[in-house]
Amino acid sequence: MPAYQVCQNFFRDALAPFHKYRQNALLDATLALINGASLTLTSIDRYLPGAAQVKNKIKRVDRLPGNESLHCDIPLIFKGIINMLTQKLSLCVIAVDWSGYPSQEYHVLRASLLCDGRSLPLLSWIVPSEKQQNSQIQKAFLDALAGGVNPKARVIIVTDAGFQNAWFRHIKSLGWDFIGRIRGNIQMRLDSKGEYWFRRQELQASSKPEYPGPGTLARSEYARCDGHFYLHKKEPKGRKNRRSRCRIERKSRIQHQHGSQSAGMVFVTRFMDSFLHQASFGTGNWCYDRHRLVRLVICDFWRLIKSHNPD
After folding, report:
1. Between the CA of residue 204 and those of 142, 198, 216, 233, 262, what are the distances in Å?
2. NCBIfam families this protein is in (predicted)?
3. For the chain, what is the domain count?
4. Nearest-CA neighbor of 209 among 301, 303, 272, 161?
5. Does the predicted TM-score (pTM) go above 0.70?
6. How many CB atoms lie within 10 A of CB 288?
7. I need a surface site. Which of 31, 208, 212, 269 has the fewest CB within 10 A?
8. Confidence label for 56 from pLDDT (cuts 50, 70 and 90)
9. Are residues 36 and 141 in the same domain?
């Protein structure tokens, strides 16, 4: 089947409410990228389908980014694509992460659907670098994502370190679940230890995943979030100073080594066994073991999070 017809069939419902000219312009630009164009205006116009002269194709592509009506349609286009990809799913595992951008003035906040060992981009926002990790932007991003996801599906948001308690609380307010890594000098409390608050670094981890139990993250009342904690630490790889000349110690390397040697803490909405069992992860040949599940969350999910970064 020709690529243009595939694009038409795939995006038919998502683009149906919009002007026919903008539909054709987007599909032609997408087809140009499929045919080998790079993501620049001059490259797209040269691969644009049709018998028009190159100068006319250049003008057509040049007008597309400045189309104000198209910019107004972008949130609705994302919403339609998200709904199309998730409407038949009973479980949506979505990875969200901040990524770099070719220009240092901006960063990308992106949500991708994890499916069959790959990630499918659902929603992307370009944000000024000074507003990176902004809680209000992250909340608005979740609201936009919630507007398109199948309301009957169970949603699990998977994040790497860098998202704070306001992020986790807003996910819970949407009725979703989360799996996130915790780093930094933050206080926490375990239900088994009562009202004793301590730093995350006080917990000792080993290469075997551990389940300290349920508890509360953050001591301040306005920032508290309840959930379950899991611990894991990677085994040392024995690569100390092997990449430096003359075995020179470097401050940046020491900082990165300290980050990799520290215990990895995973914060989840509910107990992992019941959490994944109720979510119907896998099929009949799924290896149902608590430590295997924790290792999957720590290793596989983080690898999938990194795999969808554009940088």
Report:
1. 33, 13, 18, 9, 9
2. transpos_IS4_2
3. 2
4. 272
5. yes
6. 11
7. 208
8. confident
9. no
